[in-house]
Amino acid sequence: MTDHQEVQSAIIETLQPFRKAGMTLSGDTQLVNDLGLDSVKVMELLLQVEDRFDISIPLNILPDVHTVDDLARAIHKLMEAS
Amino acid sequence: MSIFDKFQHIRETRERLAALGLTPFGAETTEIYSATEGLIEGRRTILAGTNNYLGMTFQPRCIQAAREALAEQGTGTTGSRMASGTYGGHAALEREFAAFYGEPACIVFTTGYQANLGILSTLAGRGDVLLIDADSHASIYDGARMSEAEVIRFRHNDPMDLDKRLRRLGERAKNALIVVEGIYSMLGDTAPLAEIVQVKNRHGAYLLVDEAHSLGILGERGRGLVEQAGVQDQVDFIVGTFSKSLGSIGGFCVSRHPELELVRFASRAYVFTASGTPAIIAGAREALRILAGGQELRAQLRDNGRRLHGGLRELGFRLGCAEPGPVVAVVMDSPEQAIEHWGRLLAAGVYVNLVLPPGAPDGHSLLRVSLSAAHTMAQVEAILGAFASLRVSEPAPAD
User: Fold this and answer.
1) What is the mean pLDDT of chain B?
2) B318 contacts chain A (CB < 8 A)
3) Residue A35 has what pLDDT?
4) What number is the ipTM of this complex?
5) Upstream peptide bond of B60 is cis (omega within 30 degrees of 0)
6) Do the chains contact at B168 and A39, CB–CB below 8 Å?
7) Nearest to B150 among A40, A60, A82 (CB)
8) What confidence tens digit (pLDDT) does each residue in B33-55 have?
9) Are B180 and B207 within 8 A, CB to CB?
10) Chain B: residue whose CA lies nearest to A46
11) Burial of residue B288, with CB atoms counted within 10 A of its CB: 0-12 exposed, 13-18 middle, 19 or more buried
12) CB proximity list for B40: less than 8 A, separation 6 or greater
């Protein structure tokens, strides 16, 4: 069973190409405000994370996802439900 | 702090364009001469961004039918289809659309946007799943958002990704509704419909095809991609619009499921808006008759598309779609280049659509051309000439 920490680490790993110089990624990192991800990049990120965990992330949950931790929690919940 | 603060980025873009003397979003056509020519900024301009694919807006038979309906039935219905706004014309148009497709059920909506809103938000309810192509039109995204269903996006034109997502749903896949488009409006590419139908059948899901940009264009009888791909009998819902190949305004949904008739009464975008005016409906009915027998119009549009696509490719432009079609999207290097080139095309007497991120897929900036069967080959050559002039001050394109 994948735990929250493992999901968070996978997201942070996927986010490395989007990281700005000198920035440390953590659970509190904001996807849009800190990383400046636009809608196309968020889409790319989600596709990679979805394939990594073999899940589909519904668009409905995205308005509540701001930070890496928000996304990790949402994914963890989806994995438990499946 | 103001309620308008959130629109600051729009203000900045508008100011940037105004400083360049450009009005690409909402350019005013002060006079309209034909399906392909108008007056913009005081210049006689070839219209190559209107989605008027069959040139139906100035079709004499449509104008005559609309004129008669206007004189006989008045300027508007002032009523919802559910109340006083269903006239004989609305009911006849639904029967005619159903007959055109050979399907038992049809609902006519007041606009194409409302057709997607009204169908998707109603058909897919709580506990259902909508699987939409990532490049779907805003009306599909909005209809999906208004539904209470779970909304999942799959990679554009990727049946394998769709298959994977249906597999992940398990038993829920049987109540999932897949949504794709015949021709995608921005890049002009078509859905791999036969493969998508196979995936849909494997999982027992439902399939809706939006033929907004392919009705009247694809297929021998103009039914769209469902006809061209030979899979109409396996498609559950077909949605389309009157505001492109039919030269009017309105939308429809036809289905092989007679139960579509029940959706009508539950669809808020259908119930809580006034119906199309008599003139609009009469024009659309006549246009549908012409469209059904419009093989020559389709052939002309194909020839125009092939010439423009081939010509732009020879000029070294990067195109959004490898295959020619009624939409030819030229991919620009940056938003700044797209804006500058759009202004130069207009100055050369050619109107095309400027599409800036996030309007186009993958963050592209586009100069989007939509062709018409009403464009003469001389006009197509003039459009090519205007694009060629953009190359004059640029280095030769690298291959």
Assistant:
1) 95
2) no
3) 82
4) 0.88
5) no
6) no
7) A60
8) 999 999 999 999 999 999 999 99
9) yes
10) B153
11) buried
12) B27, B28, B29, B30, B346, B351
Cα(B239)–Cα(B115) distance, integer angstroms = 7
Domain ranges in chain A are: 4-16+28-81
Name residues whose C-beta falls within 8 Å of residue A63's C-beta, 6 or more positions apart in sequence. none
pTM of the model: 0.94
What are the φ and ψ backbone dihedral angles of A28, each rounded to 5 degrees?
-85, -5
Q: What is the DSSP letter of B191?
A: -
Q: Position of tokens 């003139």? A: B279
Label residue B332 exposed, middle or buried (CB < 10 Å: 0-12, 13-18, 19+): buried
Residues 6+ away with beta carbon under 8 Å from B300: B373
- B167 and chain A: CB distance < 8 Å anywhere? no
- Annotate A25-75 with DSSP letters as a single string: P-TT-BTTTTT---HHHHHHHHHHHHHHHT----GGGGGG--BHHHHHHHH
Rounded to the nearest 5°, which phi and psi values hold at B136? -65, 155
Beta-carbon count within 10 A of B177 CB: 23
For the stretch B92-106, pLDDT in tens is 999 999 999 999 999
Q: What CATH homologous superfamily does A4-16+28-81 map to?
A: ACP-like (1.10.1200.10)
For chain B, the C-alpha Rg in angstroms (whole number) is 21
Token duo for residue B196: 């998508």
Cβ distance B168 to A60 less than 8 Å, yes or no, reads no
Nearest to B344 by CA among B310, B305, B391: B391
Give the distance from CA B177 to its chain's centroid. 20
